[in-house]
Amino acid sequence: MDKRELIQAIVDLEWPMFHNVNGEDAPKADCQNDRATFTGMRTGQFAAWDEETLASYLEDLKAAVAAGRNLDTEKYIHMMKTTSPSKYEQLSKRCVFPDEEGLAYAQKITDKMIDQTVALFDAYPYVAGSGRPLRSQEDWSGVTSIETYQKGELYTYSTKTLKLLWAHMEKLEAEGLSLAKLILENSVRYYGYKDLEEAEAGMKKFAESQPIEFSFGCGCCSDDDCGDGGCCG
Questions:
Q1: pTM given for the model
Q2: Residue 220 belongs to domain spanning
Q3: Which of these, 226, 223, 228, lies nearest to 144 by C-alpha position?
């Protein structure tokens, strides 16, 4: 498979998991029925990965499907460790946890992504400034930090995928590039902007004319809109 085919295969396997996070018969948040935005956001993320990491994550997804696992459900359960500890204790038995090596790589990736995100907040405050706290110690019921979201997803990856993603981030950094910035650039292009500079100017103008906050991602209004898992982005 080439890169485009790998991304399409990944999104095709992820969508049913995301769509059915709370079960096939449970009420769904609007974002869980919005495949177009889901596809745009996930494609934007994966377009910033290299093919070796994509291929490894595709194998993770195939293995999860074969085992009857929903990785999106597990992702949102992982998030509950700090946002809803009592629910986490009840539900965490459903999850397959990374080994110690995987946990270490997940932490390293998260720390680097947060550092890169801080730089984006400084350079593009209207585009990147989603209003979420950065670290998990700032979590509370209804508000989930960037760190908690990041770890929640990384904990569903295999150790092989985590190691490859870390190597990819280091390679990008050696080339003067930021994975977080590449993902954000892809996201704003989905919304019709040429680049981050154009998006920043547009969002600044919009924010100054409307007394509301705007951020890229799913259309959920709060962390509670997508059921126990929080926002679906």
A1: 0.85
A2: 3-229
A3: 223
